[in-house]
Amino acid sequence: MKYRIMVKILMTLLAKRKVTAKEIADRYEISLRTVYRYIEELSISGIPIDIERGRYGGIKISDAYKLPAGYFTREEYSSAINALRAWAAQVGDEATVSALEKIERQQKNDKRELAVCADIIVDGDNWGDAGVFTEKMKACEKAVNECISVTIDYLSRSGEHSRRTIDPYVLILKRNVWYVYAFCHTKQDFRTFKIGRIRKIWLTDKNFVKKPITRDQIPLDFYYSSDKLTAVTLSIERSALSDAEEWLGVDAIEPRGDSLICEMQLPAEGLVNKILSFGGAVRVVSPQSLADSVREAAKRFLD
Question: What confidence score (pLDDT) does residue 95 get?
Answer without folding.
Answer: 64
